[in-house]
Amino acid sequence: MLFWIIAAVLTLGASLAVLLPLTRQTRARDDASHDLEVYRDQLGEVDRDAARGLIAAADAEQARAEIARRIIRLDAENAREPKKASQLGPRLVGMIAVLAVPLLSWGVYTAIGSPTVPSQPLSARLSQKPADSSVDELIARAEAHLVANPSDGRGWDVLAPVYLRIGRANDAVTAYRNAIRILGSTTARQAGLGEAIAAAAGGIVTSDARLAFEAALKLEPADAKARYFLALALAQEGKISDAAAAWRLLAASLPADSPWRAATEQAIAQAEVRTAPVKEAAGAPAPSQDDIDAAASMSSGDRTAMIEGMVATLDEKLRQNPRDPEGWVRLVRSYQVLGKTDLAQDALGRAYAALGRDSEDGRKLTELAGSLGLDVTE
Amino acid sequence: MTRKQKRLSVIAGALAFLGAATALTFYALGQKASYFYMPADLQTATLQPGQRIRLGGLVENGSILRGQGTQVEFGVTDSEKTVKVRYTGILPDLFREGQGVITEGSFGPDGEFIADSVLAKHDENYMPKEVADSLKAKGVWQETTQ
Amino acid sequence: MVETGHFALILAFALSLVQSLVPLYGAYKGDTRLMAVGGPVTVTGFALIALSFAALTMAYVQSDFSVANVWENSHSLQPLIYKFTGTWGNHEGSMLLWVLILSFFGALVAAFGSNLPATLRANVLAVQGWIGTAFLLFILITSNPFARLVPAPIEGKDLNPILQDIGLAVHPPLLYLGYVGFSVCFSFAVAALIEGRIDAAWARWVRPWTLAAWVFLTGGIAMGSYWAYYELGWGGFWFWDPVENASFMPWLAGTALLHSAIVMEKRSALKIWTLLLAILTFSLSLLGTFLVRSGVLTSVHSFASDPSRGVFILCILTLFIGGSLALFAFRASQLAAGGIFHPISREGALVLNNLFLTTATATVLIGTLYPLVVEALFGDKISVGEPFFNLTFGPLMIPLLVVVPFGPLLAWKRGDVFAVAQRLMFAFGAALLAVLVTYLFIDGASVFAALGAGLSAWLVLGALTDLALKAGIGNVAPRMALRRFVGLPRSVFGTAIAHLGLGLTLLGIVGVLSFEKEAILVMKPGQVVEISDYRLRFDGLTPVRGPNFTEDQGHFSLLGINGQPSDVIMSSKRFYPVRQMPTTEAGIKTMWLSQLYISLGDEAGDGSVVVRVWWKPLVTLIWGGSLVMMLGGFVSLLDRRLRVGAPARRKSAAKPAAVTP
């Protein structure tokens, strides 16, 4: 509302700037009188210069004569016909001009303005009630606070899991590291750090991540998250049966209501599928199709969903910007690690299309795909 | 000399001056303008030994070799051909593998390009305009759609 | 507030449309009321654009990322000063600044032009209105700084790091004050063409406006040059980069205009030529804007290239340059030619100045546009750089500089070169001495360096000789001479100071080009490098965290004779994470007029780093001389006779017979 009032006042002011001069009667001065004043001034100047001795008396005389000649010429020009003002045209033009200002400005503004969008200074956005803020704004507030007080470990501690949840894995790593540095190492922080590192690596439990999980286990040998991920690391190294064994141990020790139960059981199920032929040979009963379905329907656990979500994001990003060799490497590897061979194969195909199969990046991809057991024949 | 002759001689002087300036300008354009080439263009180009040119392209991945002190060698490529460039000095801030660069200098007797200046000027895509145009023409590089 | 700014801008556009048409029609019809509309409309338009600019600045300072322009060019962690200067550190904002300055000058004409003939004033304001309308339309259609983002992002993309510098805070506004200042001269010229007569007042107006614009442009170019010198880390002060040329061409043409305006004012000669120069100078300013803004050229200035903008600016360019030149061709023959003069005279010297300066402008223009033309016609990509300009621009400038001291000493109308040469004997002798001293006593001085030093001394002493002679020092009693010296017109001081500044700038250029020393080496902590007479020790790198960047600071100690550090120099490499961009912050130590310049290169693994050190003798004179030139222009502007506006009205004005001698 205030905006419309201001806009109206501005329009009124602008229209008046056009209207007022039109209503006032002004008398035109003869053009020649201006020139004359200029010449008179020049004469005075010559006199002053001569008096100061800047120009010789003869030069001064010459200059005066020249100016006088110009004044005479002026008188001759002065005889020009003054134009007669006609009445109708100017009135009409004046009226159109006065009307044009509000019409044009409001018309154009309606077409291209955004009157409903309020100003949003950052400080105001950051100080509004938390309930009214989006998650992004809350995070920005916390970040602003941490920039001012970078040694507030509690702040980092709170922010770290939030980062992880919204997929800013790299920031989560930094936040966890800061929290550990300032507040000291705890199981939760170490395990969180490991998870963040793994998330940043596209779901791969890297050696850094493993170090963090091991540190967590040193503090609390029963920590479910650390044990889960360390088992996952084994699986990613190809030691499926070891991994499955570790998960089974974990599953056995988990309380019934543990949030890790679902994820662990699903992991066990997947591991069993992948090791099935081996087990058949050993005479162990293969899991029935029902078992697999059951495992799949056992709600994909929080963590798996998160990793899958991130892989999907990466996939989407690569669809938009396919010239990212590292991204492709991560995507292909992630799909294969998640056990989605067909998707990995598909990603590999798209990567070839984007990067060229024979380019250096293409060859790197082929190497990787071969090591992951994907089909690399053309 | 009459007044008319004087005026004519002044005008003639001015015209002679302008003529000399024009001649000098075009001579200088012929001599001092340096042409821009991509590595693949060099096969068809006829270069006098020691002629200064600008060579543009992408810094080849993994080609940067730091030698003694501040000497550095790198490959400039347009994905068809690669030219080895030798340069002594400080590389620009934005010089990295895979980025577009323009180097200016001439070919040495051993076929290496001796650059005396390396530019990694940039627009928002970190790509010198000449390089971007040429790469686009070759279909090697597409602008990221955003 | 943001939307208020947007609305004010649109309203200003509507007003500028009125400003371009109504006074013009009024002048044509002889209707005083329509003509009178020009003044208030211009002033109101300026107020509205100022409001709009304030709104954008506010959005920047408050980090309002709902404004797309702010989001693209700012960041909440940026220091406040760069949030502020970021307003014009981008395409849209800088165009708004352009229009703001244009409307400001229009408002000045409206406010101080009450003594101008009504039709001239109306026409001038109308022409200003055309320019304003064209640029406002350009802003609203292709580069609206008030485009909004819904929902607003939480963080901005940061200002280009190399623009996060105090030099940038000053460079564009100064440059634009210069560029756009010439628009007033242009408007007066076109108004004169429309009316078909050149008023005596025109000569009075065009000179102060040219002077003011020239002072600002000089400052803008010098600032830009110094900024490039310390911010890009290459240690060069001028690169003959097309963007630099774009600002240099209006300066050259403006300098020519400045001198021909003197002839026009004093002697009523060269009227038509001055008119043409005024049109050309502003045309070159427009061309500069086009080259820089359209993205035809690659440089730090081409913030974003959008083809539609290029086409739009090209249209503006064609319309204004083509239109005004066509009008000139059509009308020039109707204008009364001015007085006559002997070739050897002050006028003659000024014409010579114009001949050289316009030819130099033409060579720079050709050198700048040639690559564009060749690419358009033949598809070849070429670049025209320093070697071309050294070969063409240099030979043109040297004779001009040689004759500079003669000009102010020649008499109007008919002069005597030999008499002037005699009076300059002292300066000539001293300059010759400077050549010999430089050549014989300074190590490594080339003939070129010696002659350059001599030419600088010639310019400086020639300017001082001019002042001394005009004050009559040596001819009259010292007290009398002092009185005359104090009483000299300001414009005489202005001329001498500006020519002196030119000499100083030349000396700086010669100093750097001839005696610069450079060392590039890999330095380990504790290592010492000797350059010129200085010993510099590298003390190591320390990482530092800035508000929106991280940097590795390299510390260097300047060692005294006893090996003890006498001073510390810091040079650093910065990294701006938001844009993922590194920059070099040169370490500069000014010693008297010279500088030690240190720039850091890549780091090797073992704590050693590539270091480039320059000893730049007399380098500060390059910009110091420009400041002196600006001072000269400013002093000249203070001359009572040059005050903006026609002289005060007098009661007796109606009786011309009274003053005719």
Explain what this protein looks like in three dimensions.
The complex is a heterotrimer of chains A (378), B (146) and C (661). With 378 residues, chain A is mainly alpha-helical. Chain A has a domain at 321-372. Helix content of chain A is 75%, strand content 0%. Chain A contains 19 helices and no strands. Chain A is elongated, with a radius of gyration of 41 Å. Chain B starts with a helix and ends in an 8-residue tail after the last helix. Chain B is elongated, with a radius of gyration of 22 Å. Helices cover 27% and strands 29% of the residues of chain B. Chain B folds into two domains: 1-33; 35-138, Nucleic acid-binding proteins (OB fold (Dihydrolipoamide Acetyltransferase, E2P)). Chain B contains two helices and seven strands. By secondary structure, chain B is an alpha+beta fold. Chain B has helices spanning 3-32, 129-138, and strands at 34-37, 53-59, 65-66, 71-77, 82-88, 100-107, 113-119. Chain C is α+β, with helices and mostly antiparallel strands. Chain C has four domains: 1-164, no CATH class; 166-415, no CATH class; 424-515 and 621-630, no CATH class; 517-616, Tick-borne Encephalitis virus Glycoprotein, domain 1 (Sandwich). Chain C is built from 19 helices and ten strands. Chain C has helices at 2-29, 32-61, 68-73, 80-85, 91-112, 118-142, 166-195, 200-231, 242-267, 271-293, 307-331, 346-378, 386-403, 417-423, 425-441, 447-471, 478-487, 490-515, 620-637, and strands at residues 382-383, 517-523, 528-531, 534-545, 550-559, 565-576, 581-585, 587-591, 594-603, 609-616. In chain C, strands 3-4-5-6-7 form a five-stranded antiparallel sheet, with no helix packed on it. In chain C, strand 5 and strand 6 (565-576) form a beta hairpin. In chain C, helix 5 (91-112) packs antiparallel against helix 6 (118-142) and helix 7 (166-195) packs antiparallel against helix 8. Chain C starts with a helix and ends in a 24-residue tail after the last helix. The interface between A and B is small, with 4 and 5 residues.
